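pls design
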């Protein structure tokens, strides 16, 4: 596939009676899905994140308590060291929000190497 500059593309569009592209977008090189997946894994997933996530998941009843462990689940750890917790409904979210500091304290006790700074509750 031949790539043309934006100026040439607009000249061809004008010749064909099509609207010109005045955006500031830039064409990027094509990549295979496999390469794209590898790049994402390198950028966002580290072995320590996987280990911390597994440890949190294994100790989930101890972290949120037996009453809430079936109503919410750890979803992911963000790049800013926030634990996203998926909750079943807004009532559970509100109750867990009131217990946010307690949950953070338990995470720090059970997984001190996690580095989690905050928790976010999401529906």
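designed seq:
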């Amino acid at each position: 596939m031949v790539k043309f500059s934006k100026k040439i593309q607009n000249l061809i569009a004008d010749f064909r009676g099509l609207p010109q592209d005045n955006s500031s977008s830039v064409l990027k090189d094509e990549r295979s899905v496999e390469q794209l997946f590898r790049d994402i894994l390198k950028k966002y997933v580290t072995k320590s994140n996987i280990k911390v996530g597994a440890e949190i998941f294994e100790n989930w009843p101890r972290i949120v308590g037996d009453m809430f462990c079936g109503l919410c689940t750890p979803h992911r750890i963000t790049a800013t060291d926030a634990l996203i917790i998926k909750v079943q409904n807004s009532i559970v979210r509100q109750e867990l929000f009131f217990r946010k500091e307690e949950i953070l304290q338990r995470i720090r006790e059970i997984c001190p190497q996690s580095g989690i700074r905050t928790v976010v509750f999401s529906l």
